[in-house]
Amino acid sequence: LVLLLVWKQWYQRRVRGDLLSEHFVKVIELYPDKKDKVLEELLSHTQVFIEKGLTGHIIVQHLMLQYFLHGSVESIQELVSEKLIEQIVNFVHTKEGSKIAMRCLWHSKAKERKLVIRTFKGHIKDMCMNENSYLVLCALFDCVDDTVLVKKAVLSEIIESLDSITMSQYGRLLLNYILAPRSTKLFPPSIIDCLKVGDTNNVSKKDTQVRRLEILTYASPGIIANFKDNVESMLMENTRTLLLSTAVNHVNCEISSVLTAVVDLLATDKSLVDSTTMHILMRSIQSHQTHQKPFNDQVMEKIPMTDVVDWINTNRGSFSLLRLLECGSTEKQQQLVDVLKQKDLHKFPKSAGRDKLIEFLNKS
Fold this sequence. Notes:
The protein is mainly alpha-helical. The protein has 25 helices and no strands. Helix 4 runs parallel beside helix 8 (95-107), helix 11 packs parallel to helix 14 (169-179) and helix 19 (256-268) packs parallel to helix 21. The radius of gyration is 26 Å and the shape is elongated.
């Protein structure tokens, strides 16, 4: 106990990890012929830690992680026993513990993976919102072939807690991973590289794209059902708006309810078209091959044409107006073109969007 207190008090977490990791690696480098013996000793200690339920201690996690990093897949599979699995929730929220948990999922067999998932029951919400454990759930989505179990045991808890999860930085990352896994626009290389480690596991058999589509299909309706009721509040923050835009671009379900909610907001408050967040969201919708026409049609149906014409008063509004006209040639859009051509658009405030719109109208 005294040693543990001193360790926690005088060494930062990164320093503690580096000391143990560097020491272990140096021993193997200096004495390569001793590697098997060192791993054997480390395995023996790890088994004791698990048996005595000591896995919640940070020093223990550092030591265990070294075995999970350097031990054989076969020996790791043997380590992932019910005794260890029932303790995973005790260490899944730490940096070292989350790496152990990921390797438990990657290298354990299907039966043990199911036990791990059941152990997470009731903890999913907290895991989503933690900087380390959300990655464990990402790893779970990457490797577990039984997506029906994932839907029932994991996705259902996520959907129930979306109001809280979307308010969390790490919760949003988790949702982004469901919507667009491994996206280089959403995740830094360090995160992608961390999760790629599990791609070579020899337990998962299902095609990666099939697994991802199944998870996305299960999660999409619940995500859209929540987001369509929260569009206005999500537009109050850039990060939540970006999540909403990601959902619009990637969900595998009908999103007309979200489009309607956005148009209703635009109809209620004319100034919204010039807000940063609404501009981000409208650009995503109006640039999407499937969603642009139904959205633009709703705009023309629900918002008075005089209000739509007024969008040219701002740069962002002008670009939204331009995308509205570029989309197609419905009767109302043609009427809008005629109205705009009758006006001296050069009298409106100068902006890049206004000039692009004038250029488009001159060519049409």
